[in-house]
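README: folding subset

This subset contains proteins for which both the sequence and a predicted structure token string are available. Records are stored as plain text. Below is the entry for chorismate mutase (99 residues), shown exactly as it appears on disk.
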Amino acid sequence: MAKTAADCTTMAEIRENIDRVDKALMALFEERWSFIRRAAEIKAGLGIPADVPARVKEVRDNANRNAQAHGLDGDFYEEIWAQLIEHAIAYEKTQLGEG
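--- output ---
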């Protein structure tokens, strides 16, 4: 059963809810990845390269700002997003036939 952290009184409840949140995060990552796959298709039709540095900076800056807005360490989450971006660019390069 979904609880807030403050509602949890045992480590079992904490672990159950961390697992619940992790599962929800994976569903969101899958949704995010569906957009990456579609972006590769659209980029192929428009001749846009996989790596667009201005967009990479924008997404990283957004991650930092969004993390801070939630009281989280912006630099830490920006680095996580950097890895997500790097993985997405590698996928898109493969799909676009880029060296």
